[in-house]
Amino acid sequence: MESNLVIRKKHFWGQAKFEDISFSFPDTNKILKANKFLLALCSPVFEAMFYGESAEKRNPIHIIDTDYTTFKCFLSYIYLEELHVDSLQEVQNLVYVAHKYAIQSMENACELYLIRNLEISKFDDDDFDDILSLADMFCLHELKEFCELYKHHKPNKDLPATWITYKKGDPIPSSMTFVEIDPATNWPLGVGRFKYNSFLIPGKFDIKEKCVFISYAKKSFKCDDDFEILCNGDLDWVESEHGKMVDNAVIGGNQLYREPLLIGKMTIEGETHIGKVHRSHFRAYFSNEDKNEKSVTEKYFVLMDKNFAESEYAYPYDESNKYHSYV
User: Fold this and answer.
1) What is the span of the domain harbouring residue 38?
2) Are 172 and 111 members of one domain?
3) Which residues form the signal peptide (predicted)?
4) Residue 155 DSSP code
């Protein structure tokens, strides 16, 4: 729910009776108008400009380092707390203005927008360097981590999928496989696994948070140290249901009687979940992170590797026990 302050600021936007300062631009005859007190409320730079010992007396104020379109986006964010932009270049320009006028919330919003909208798949080294320079210049640490993750991401599709041990503080392996993109954040997701109650259970590796979430016994569990990450492989998701085996399925771990667990995926309420497929239960189980697990029998996906190589956990388990409860 919006605060009363935000509601009131939105009411001020575009209202001529509240406008007492103007801004002009050398490349156009257009003028932008705003309310001095509202600008000072949101920016210490504007506060000093309008109410400091050397307060600005000119009206309009000439803006020579920012174009009209960018400055209009800048003012609209101050009033509306929303980004209204048409291109990534506009956002990059906006970062400069937000930094100049010390509006941290706007810098954060621009950083988040860039992370969610960069078409990383089309980037070359020069594109990465441009964004990384921007991130360094304005201390956009999350954007820098995001871009460096992709820039150094070099899994080998010609090798079969393998598991690499990760400990807290380690760099993310460059060979790690991105199996999905989180639709909410645009951060890539991986597959991780760790031992719980002597069972080796696969789940979602949240790269941003550097932790793995698994499901077990109707609950969700989290591990942020000493787990394994799935790397390399020519991977793809294949639709399945009722615990059916998928050709070349990646073996994610094992449960009681050394039953192999496959790696499953599905979208629940707009959020991507990665978990285990328990064939003897005829269903897939997914961690809802800090909440209880969810299980489904139909319309989930199983991870397969076109370079399939049997792992130490891929041998048959006791089929006579396949109807027993292993959890």
Assistant:
1) 4-117
2) no
3) none
4) -
Q: How many domains does the chain have?
A: 2
d(CA 138, CA 237): 39
Looking from the CA of 170 toward its CB, the CA atoms found within 13 Å total: 17
Of residues 121, 96, 116, the one with CA closest to residue 106? 96
Residue 34, classed as helix, strand or coil, is strand
Is 150 among the domain residues? no
Evaluate whether residue 326 is within a structural domain: no
Residue 219 DSSP symbol: E
Q: Are 101 and 45 in contact (CB under 8 A)?
A: yes
- Looking at 117, 138, 173, the residue that finishes a domain is 117
- Residue 76 to residues 73, 80, 82, 83, 155, Cα–Cα distance (Å): 5, 6, 7, 8, 43
User: Token match 């090798």: residue?
Assistant: 159
Element holding 104 (H helix, E strand):
helix 104-117
User: Within this chain, do residues 175 and 312 fall inside the same structural domain, yes or no?
Assistant: yes
Is residue 173 domain-shared with residue 281, that is, in the same domain? yes
Identify the domain boundary among 117, 141, 173. Answer: 117
Please report the DSSP string for 235-269 in residue order. EEEEEE-TT---TTBPEEEE-GGG-EEEEEEEEET
218-224, long-range: CB < 8 A, 24+ apart: 218/292, 218/293, 219/292, 219/293, 220/287, 220/288, 220/289, 220/290, 220/291, 220/292, 220/293, 221/196, 221/287, 222/289, 222/290, 223/192, 223/194, 224/168
Q: What would the pLDDT profile of 37-87 be if each residue is shown by its tens digit?
A: 999 999 999 999 999 887 778 889 999 999 999 999 999 999 999 998 888
- 129 located within any domain: no
How many CA within 13 A on the CB side of residue 16?
Answer: 1
The two tokens of residue 224 are 């942020």
Q: What is the pTM for the complete model shown?
A: 0.78
- Per the domain annotation, does 152 fall within a domain? no
Tokens at residue 64, please?
Answer: 């020579």
